[in-house]
Amino acid sequence: MKVEDVVCPFCGCLCDDLVVELEGTRIVRVENGCTLANEKFMGDKRLKAPIRRDGKGWKEISYEEAVRETAEILLDADRPLLYGWSGTHGEAQSIGVHLAEVLGAVIDNTSTVCHGPSILAIQEVGHPGCTLGQVKNRADVVVYWGANPIDAHPRHMSRYTTYTDGFFVKDSFRERKVIVVDVRQTETSRVADEFVMVDPGGDYAVLSALRAIVRGKREIIPSSVAGVPREQLFRVADLCLSAKFGAVFFGLGLTMTPGKNKNIRNAIELTEELNRHTKFTISPMRGHWNVYGSNEVFTWITGYPYAVDFSRGIAFYNPGETTSVDILRREECDACLVVASDPGAHFPHECARHLARIPTIQIDPHVNATTPLSTIQIPVAVTGIDAEGTAYRMDGVPIRTQRLYQGTYPGDLDILTQLYDLVKEAKRT
Amino acid sequence: MTELLVKNAFVIDPLSGIKGEIMDLAIRDGKIVEEVGNGAVVIDAEGCLTLPGGIDSHSHVCGTKVNFGRYMSPEDMRAGRTARKGVMHVTSGYSVPTTYGNSYRYSTMGYTTVLEGAMAPLEARHTHEEFTATPHQDMLANTLFDGNWAIMEAVKERDVKRAAAVVAWTLSAVRGFAIKLTNPGGTEAWGWGEDVHSIHDPVPHFGVTPAEIIDTMIQANELLNLPHSVHLHCNNLGVPGNYRTTLETIERVPDVNPDRQSLYLTHVQFHAYGGSTWRDICSRSEDIARAVNQRPHIAIDMGQIMFGRTTTMTADGPMEFKLYMLHHNKWSNHDVELETGSGIIPVYYSRKSLVNCVMWAIGLELALLVRDPWQCMLATDNPNGAPFVKYPEIIALLMSRRYREKEGEMIDPKTGHYAPLFAIDRELDWYEIAVMTRAAQAKALGITRIGKGYLAPGAEADIAIYPLKPDQLDPSTDYQQVAAGFSRTRYTIKRGRMVARDGEVIVEGANSTIWSRAQVPAEYDMNHDSEFVKKFEQYYTVRMRNYPVQDVYLPRGICIGTESSL
Are B335 and A123 within 8 A, CB to CB? Predict the structure, then answer.
């Protein structure tokens, strides 16, 4: 069976034009996908059943047992943390937030170690953005700053920017200029019309210089800024100023390098400054396919995109205090539920060590770097393969992922609803 | 079968011609009926003011830009938070509350139906997700067509039928309710950082004018026999001197529908400015009200502003950028491919700002100068003019000249020089307020056909009982009690179920989403129009198959089906 227009649940591009061929419940072929997508669909090797740590090994347990024990652990905890969420659909995220609310837990998503600083900057100065189709149809200048889409978002350029023609850009490859800013040569920088190589840690200064140039203060620019010659800065600024529609995309090379949220603030303010002359937009290259969905869902229920602490009854948000890394580093957290993410692979060592010390339960279909830190792991259906639900693309466009076949695994939503019901019942009595 | 009997209610039900009578209301299975049995649960209203559930015909509460307003504003979230209590979830936010915050606050004010003022079709799924999390109001979505490429192409070809077909396809695909035009043409121009400055300015590259878009859409709307009229946010919002644009727009509207208005102009306060700069801005409410009074086929809402902090959010991207250039606070913008735009900035309306004082006066003037309350509805363009929790104060201001004068003492003393408010004696009565907050909305939206906005047998049992005894109160002097009474119902009943009591929500909600579907002949089905399909696949970034909102997003959808005249 061939299924068309399949949504890929891998990265924030959320491509929705894949063709997946199935033989029963086995995926045999994926068309239109990038290598990451192919691996996601074809290399899906899951845990067979829930497992619980048993001495140095693992013991298989039933779903019922696993869910009941998880509920008990969470109910017994003083400072539970519900972390992850970016790899599941919105409906499951919603239940997760309500579960945190009833438990008085902290709920946090992967933005906390990813585009969290971008969110902080947006909360300071706002975000002039757009949907990706605006860029595809209009942009004549595209800037990738601290991002390497060819590796991390392999179809970003072919679907939305450099290699796709749009309504007003009939010959994209010739008409669109691509500027890449990075600390090193990358696959993406090789296809740039203008590659700006910045000294590590120099992004803030380069952004400031560009802002000064756009403001008409060329005379104050020194001969080089963070390794970038003045002439190149002028050239880049002129390219931006003469654009009819410019689009900046930034990645973790800007968000997680020295300056962090201040880098992003500077980039947004540069974009704002350019809007006084022409049209410019800026967008974060979100990583997980539904990390933006977790920000959206958290926000409409709690008011905040991540790091929400319900321990006082109200929703409380203070990144640096209520963020997962901080709660774990302070060894405050005494039980953790990990859903659809892999903190074992991404968190600082001391946080991972603390996760191993406390009861950590993971709801995830695959064995990953968090498995060795966990007490219980509950395998589930994969959204976009054998579970369906809402996802938000990196630009905020909501798309429904499909269920390609009816599998035997319960979904995140099933497991979380059971947990929520158990916890609600226990709290009631 | 559940039965409820509300006894001794002081009922004002304008659509049924009831102007204040003590009577009983019988309810069975969510509907008003002639009578109920002895076993019915009895609520004694003790002579309190009892109205059909409130209907907000223009409010921004759900969807992409609303949520971005929350996302970017932790300071607003901190400014209004409540803990989980009983069945009530945690809430956050003052001007852009979380979905449950909106729902509980509306419900405790007696509102049972709310229309989201602007939904971008491409992002409709988001709006519907938030609708489901706004459980105590039936929700409707105005659907944005102001910068829709397929529409502008049809306008260019002077093909009204094709425009109607595109509307029919889109509303059905995104489960939208009505046609919304926000700064028609201007949002497309903003795709290049530009705007249109009059209704005759051509839209860049598309060669059509706002006037042509408006004219075509009014006709297309009637071809589809949609329940509501075109819902228009005029061009030039917030620009001194813009009353001319508004008048010019009003003047070209034909009277095309015997049952309701032919055009609904929203937040008209923002479109009634005289002068030429911020220094000489003045009220032109009299000109606008005169135009409306002469044309029964026009309906408007006030777009009242109230002093204090709020967040502005609209599909009118260029306007938000201009506003940002004035305020220099923080600015978000989100253009939506092939369809529309949007922008958000926080603002503070100050009693010390003459401009803000004039704006405040204009909204009230419109409500007082438009003679027929059926033509001017009470709204703040929530949260643009003020959060909806300010409605009770607005009601009190409209009902009391003394209150207006008292407020007048607190604001810029030059206000009276630029606005006629303080020369207006009119004080609205209970009946007029009932019209302006529910009956007129039900009529304007065309939802009386599904039992909304009245309390006669057959109607939906959406009822608000306020702790106000009209025979014992003089709103002219007791304005504080009026404001307090409208802020918190004694009982709010939704579809026959008591949902809120004395300011607290007491049950889990189960709302409906109301949408429109016009049947069109096969040759007008855009699903099979090769040009439409080709352009869709070429220029959108989602596949056409993944665009429509699936039924699962409307767990209790109510579809108003119409037969088109195509």
Answer: no
For B305-343, the pLDDT digits (tens) are 999 999 999 999 999 999 999 989 999 999 999 999 999
**pLDDT tops 80 at residue B251:** yes
Residues facing B56 on adjacent strands: B114
* Euclidean distance between CA atoms A40 and A382, whole angstroms: 10
Residue B472 lies in a domain: no
**Is residue B7 in some structural domain?**
no
- Phi, psi values for residue A396, rounded to 5°: 95, 0
Core vs surface per residue A155-191: b (16+ CB within 10 A) or e: bbbbbbbbebbbbbbeebeeebbbbbbbbeebebbeb
Show which of residues 64-123 on chain B sit within 8 Å of chain A, judged by CB atoms: 64, 67-68, 70-74, 77, 81-84, 89-90, 92-93, 97-101, 122-123
Asked if the bond preceding B521 is cis, omega within 30° of 0, the reply is no
Q: DSSP E strands: which ranges in B227-341?
A: 230-233, 263-265, 273-274, 282-283, 298-301, 308-314, 332-335
Note whether B337 contacts A300, CB cutoff 8 Å.
Answer: no
Is the pLDDT confidence value at B1 over 80?
A: no
Q: Is B328's Cβ below 8 Å from some Cβ in A?
A: no
Q: Which two tokens stand for residue B82?
A: 């409540």
B332 contacts in chain A (CB < 8 Å): 122, 126-129
**pLDDT reported for residue A67:** 98
Q: Is B331 on the interface with A (CB under 8 A)?
A: yes
CATH assignment of the domain containing B170: 3.20.20
Give the count of Cβ contacts less than 8 A between chain A and B: 176
Note whether A128 contacts B: Cβ–Cβ < 8 A: yes
- Residue whose C-alpha is closest to residue A361's, from A348, A349, A371, A346: A371
Host domain of residue B132: 53-394
Residues A403 and B285: their CA atoms lie apart, in Å, by: 56
On whether residue B111 sits in a domain, the answer given is: yes
Q: Is A232 on the interface with B (CB under 8 A)?
A: no
Give the closest residue to A266 by CA, choosing from A183, A347, A346, A204: A204
Chain B hits for A424, Cβ within 8 Å: none
Tell me the pLDDT tens digit for each residue of B286-307: 999 999 999 999 999 999 999 9
Q: Which of A102, A280, A295, A299 to mutate to test the interface with B (most CBs of B within 10 A)?
A: A299
Question: Domains in chain B: how many in total?
Answer: 1
Q: What is the mean pLDDT of residues B539-551?
A: 98
Distance CA A374, CA B222 (A): 62
0.95 surpassed by complex ipTM:
yes
pTM: 0.98
Q: Residue B85's closest chain A neighbor by CA?
A: A313
| pLDDT 10s digits, B487-513 | 999 999 999 999 999 999 999 999 999
In a domain, B424, yes or no: no
* pLDDT at residue B365 is higher than 70: yes
